[in-house]
Amino acid sequence: MEYAVKIENLKKSFGKEVVLNGITHLFEKGKIHGIMGFNGSGKTVMFKCICGFLSPDEGKIYVNGKLIGKDVDFPQSIGIIIENPGFLIELSGFENLRRLADLNKIVSTEEIRNTMQIVGLDPNSKKKVGQYSLGMRERLGIAQAIMENPDLLILDEPFNGLDKRGAEDVYVLFKNLQKQGKTIIFAAHNMMEIEGVCDTICEMDAGMLTRVK
Question: Given the DSSP bridges, would you call strands 3-14 and 58-63 parallel, antiparallel or unpaired?
Answer without folding.
Answer: antiparallel
